[in-house]
Amino acid sequence: MYAGDDVSSIVVDVGTHTTRLGYAGEDQPQHISSSHVGVIVEEGDRNGELVTDESRIDYERKHFEVEPIVNSDGFITDFDKFQTYLENKLTNNFQLDLTESPLLFTEPNMHNKEHRLKLTEILFEKCNVPCLFLGKNAVLSAFASGKSTCLVLDSGHNSTYAAPVFEGYILNGSTLRYRIGGSYVSNKLHEYLKSKGIPVNPGYAFNKVVDGEDIKVTPKSTEGFTDSYRDYHIHKIIKFFKQECALVSDISITDKKLENIKPYEYELPDGKKFEIGGERCLYPEVFFAGVDIINQELEKAGSDAQMEDDDDHLKGFIGVQHAITESINQTDLDIRKELYSNILATGGNCMTQGFISRLQKELPEIAPQNLRVKVSSSHSGSVTEYCASSFTGGSILGSLGSFQQMWFSKQEYEENGAIMVERKCP
Amino acid sequence: MKNDVNSILQLKKREKKAEAKSKQKKEKKRPEGVNREVFSLTNGIPPLMGTQEASATIKGKKRALNWKVDKWVWTPFFNPARGDNLKLKHWQKDKNKDEVYSFAKINQKIALVDFDDEEYDKYLKDLNDDWNKEETEYLWEMCERFDLRFIIIHDRYDKKYQRTVEELKDRYYSCAKKLLEEREQEDHNIVKKPFNYDYEVKRKYYLEKLYLRTKQQNEKEKHIIEYIKKLDQKLKKYEKEEKNLAKILDEDKQGNLLRKQEDDSGKGEKKEGVSGAYLRSQHIIAPVPMSEKSQSQMDIIFNEMELIPSQLKPTEKVLELFTEIKKEIIRMLSLHKHIKKRKEEISILNDKLKDMEDFCKISELNKSAPVGARSTGAMRYPPPQIGQDHVPPSMSRNPSATSERLHPSAARQSVQKSPNKDAKSAKGGKKRKAGGGGPGSKRSRN
User: Fold this and answer.
1) What pTM was estimated for this model as a whole?
2) Average pLDDT over residues A24-41
3) Who among A6, A100, A370 is closest to B218 (CB)?
């Protein structure tokens, strides 16, 4: 019954950090690139030209803006740019003819009707795809782990979601979103480094030359490079730093002394070495304690740096474990047992060292005592399984024989209008 | 002897000759169709079962090469499960190209109990004043879309109507039931087991309460259950002892404690239950084994009576009397034990009574005294501690029964009281006691 039928459909999984593209039926995306386009802003006839290839964005050049293709919630704001981005990618990397490829798009867990309608319009009118389907990230992540009912905790680059999925449908009324994610920790680490007098220099700002035994680093001029370009490159460096040093402590940080945490030695690309101590545990702790606790700890340590909590969506956030229970408490009582025993942690931010084990420890203490709580996550711990779980789910879905009747085709679009997408893609 | 040897040897020789002859006879000519090795194995005798024809895979390499490969084409296919004529492409065997798409049969829909306008006006309009036709039709549409998954229906239901899951279920199932009844399809599950709205609401209320229980409440509940178990066990033990006591006191029954085999008819003057021959002296010196303590007690009593068992002449009469004496001694000893126990219990109860009286006096005093005086030196009645060992017997039965117990004639009557009743009154007794805490204690009566 669950046999596959390959119609060579394409899965496009757009995120705030990376975009994953690939054929349905594959377990990993063939192409992963950052969700940015470059725009040439120099004088001349190339002004305004879009650059979509990641390697070309990384190329050192001046007068070049780097813009994200989705806003911080994961929704596309500039559809023209997005269309160029998508068409370039599919043509250059996959040599595809869009008029022949069914397209399966993923979308953020918060239901946004206008976005869906606009996207459907663009894809049918401008790109002329034969059929498409829009699937929510949480549902697809659930499918990737083989479950049709589970609570998906998706902690990504820009946001953290707690979304219950019941029998393959997401429960919109119980989905919670918090605008906190991996980027928050990256920013705080960057500020920390600045406050310690360690500026992070992007790759184009210095020259590294091997001189016999030594490595000589000479600074270069950064004139002419745009701010967005600089931020893009600095973020890349900070990202590697964060991936190596960020640690979620095994007990609440209020019970632990920051001074006792083992410091980590790191060397930036421009040769600067430094140590980071308790702060490597402090910033990731926001995912389990919320911003207020962190500020308290900072005050105790005598530091002036405070985390902002003026963002409304951050105000209610006291930890992912509370987000999970809050979300489940908004669902019907009968399904809570099943949700608690099937909690799925996905998203790149869950790869932080110690995140999953801390969650497995914290959650049973606030969950109902007579229910079994089980948190599952990627088994192998590979990057793809965390970051591209919605791609994998889309790939599974798009290659199922029983799914082929569910595509929203161009004919249906022409007969019923874009609003039909609400019915066909629940 | 030589002849014998010779004859044996000759016999052997003869056998050898016979073998050689038979061998010669057996050497047949190998027929042509049969392989040399096969012939040496089977000796020309055809096998019982015919061999199978060598299949193409073993022998016929040429035949395998003659197979035709199925041709696969990248072809558009029609999906009957779709409402439009979208034709996607996939790989399919050319020879199967006219087959119906195999996944179309998976497109199953749940059979809703549907209605038309007529039926609505006749039966459903007045079923529930809270619902109008428009909303009912909207609900049916949602039920069809989501295959009666009410939780999802409720999640996607238009917020302007403000319905709970139970209300949606109630409306659907009550309408369906009415329609099925009117159509005389009473065999359906919806009619046989109707949806009970009130029950569902209540059930969810209690379920929520269960989920909101804290860890402490759960621990408390566990403790209480354990405590009740312990109490039950103690009661059982106690009842057993009471039964034994009754047996001892009862003079009608010939409960011979020395004899291991007890007779069903309960008549006296029975032969000793030991089968076969035995030495009477053995019975006197080393009778039925009993515990060290009781043996030593018996020895003490024998000493007092100046009775030395080993000096008894083991005649029948003597043995009888000796057995009688032993019986009586054992009876006496157990009665002593029971009396001692009762005396202990009485003293404990007396102490408790004294405490309660004191407490009452003090609380009387405190009522008249100003508020601040309560905290000083007032003796509080301790709340029933979990793990308390003692089960006072007077609380487990009616007080009158205790006095009856001491008369052996009435003992049989009291034994016949049902143990369940006693267990219940034990718990009741515990409750009564807990209630006696008075105004000072803060226990909640559960």
Assistant:
1) 0.70
2) 91
3) A370
